[in-house]
Amino acid sequence: MAWRQLLLACCLSAAVLLTNVEQKIFMQESDASNFLKRRGKRSPKSQDEVNAENRQKLRANELRREYYEEQRNEFENFVEEQNDEQEERSREAIEQWRQWHYDGLHPSYLYNRHHI
Predict the structure, then answer these.
(1) Phi/psi at 32 (nearest 5 deg)?
(2) How far apart are CA 86 and CA 76, in angstroms?
(3) How far is it, in rounded angstroms, from Cα 3 to Cα 9?
(4) Are 102 and 108 a contacting pair, CB within 8 Å?
(5) Is residue 69 over pLDDT 90?
(6) How far apart are CA 1 and CA 50, in angstroms?
(7) Within 10 Å of residue 97's Cβ, how many Cβ atoms?
(8) Residue 25: CA atoms inside 13 Å, Cβ hemisphere, count?
(9) Does the pLDDT of residue 71 top 90, yes or no?
(10) What is the rounded CA–CA span in Å between residue 38 and residue 49?
(11) pLDDT single digits (tens) 11-25
(12) Who wins on pLDDT, 84 or 98?
C-alpha cells in the first residue's frame, strides 16, 4: 500500500513539474505559426532583420579593417628594418672606402665634421 502512495506522489509531482516546464519551453501557438513562415522575396524586411544584417555588415567591416591595418603595420615595420640594414651596410662600405683611400696628408673626414 505504501508503494502505491509513493508512486502516486511521484506521478503527481512529475505532472506538476512538466506543466511548469512546458510553459517555459514552448511558445504560444500564434508565435509558433509566425516563427517558421518564410518571408516572400518582394515583401519588406522587418526592422529586426534589417538591424541584424547591419550588425553583421558592421562587424565584417571592422574585422576587415583590423586585418588590413595589422598587415600594413607589419609591412611598414619590415620596410623600416630593411632600410635600416641597407643604411648600415652602405655606411660601413663608405667608412671602409675612406679608410682605404686616406693618404695621410689631410686630416680625415672625421675631424672636418661640423658639430652642431
Answers:
(1) -65, -40
(2) 15
(3) 10
(4) yes
(5) yes
(6) 63
(7) 10
(8) 6
(9) yes
(10) 13
(11) 777 776 666 655 556
(12) 84
How far does Cα 31 stand from its chain's mean position? 36
Cα Rg of the chain (Å, integer)? 40
Which residue type occupies 84? D
Q: If DSSP states are collapsed to H, E and C, what string results for 53-106?
A: HHHHHHHHHHHHHHHHHHHHHHHHHHHHHHHHHHHHHHHHHHHHHHHHHCCCCC
Is there a contact between 94 and 108 (Cβ–Cβ < 8 Å)?
Answer: no
Which residues lie closer than 8 Å to 109 by C-beta, 6 or more apart?
98
CA 46 to CA 43: how far, in whole Å?
9
Which residues touch 45 (CB under 8 Å, ≥6 apart)?
39, 53
Cell representation of residue 22: 512546458
Amino acid at 68: Y
Contact 45, 39 (CB under 8 A): yes
> Which residue type does 88 have?
E
